[in-house]
Amino acid sequence: MKRFVLILIICLWGGTAWADHPIASAQFNQGGSIHVTMNDGRAFDVPDDMKNRHRRQIAEWEAEGNTIAAYVAPVVTDDDRIGSAFPLSDREQVLFEVLFELTNRLRAQESLGALTRAQFRDWLKTKLP
Questions:
Q1: Within a 10 A sphere around the Cβ of 30, how many other Cβ atoms?
Q2: Displacement of CA 60 from its chain's centroid (Å)
Q3: Model confidence over 4-46: pLDDT tens digits?
Q4: Least packed by Cβ within 10 Å: which of 16, 18, 65, 84?
Q5: What is the number of structural domains in the chain?
Q6: The domain containing residue 115 runs over which residues?
Q7: Which residues of 42-51 are buried (b: 16+ CB within 10 A; e: fewer)?
Q8: How far is CA 101 from CA 53, 104, 106, 114, in A?
């Protein structure tokens, strides 16, 4: 019985000690809500609406001198744009790369400037049905 009481006390103490996790960081996301990371590693999104109790907790956290980081759009590279606009299987990707290299070699022999992958993709799209 003593062991049970001791375990119960430890559980209750642990529950109250972990009930109020401080916020480690917060950042706006693309949808306008706030992505919150707690000190214990948990992460979740909170709507930017002061009627929400979690948003009010974030406001208290801000009042302590913390700030919510602004949303930073991901950097899209040319390869990402090419891949999303012209998705290819592995075999098609190899054929695309071979054709791209051969085209640029021919252009070099004819003293023409090299094409970028995006330019080549756009040209190729005009030739395909």
A1: 10
A2: 26
A3: 655 656 655 554 444 455 899 999 998 889 999 998 889 999 9
A4: 65
A5: 2
A6: 78-127
A7: eeeebeeeee
A8: 58, 5, 9, 10
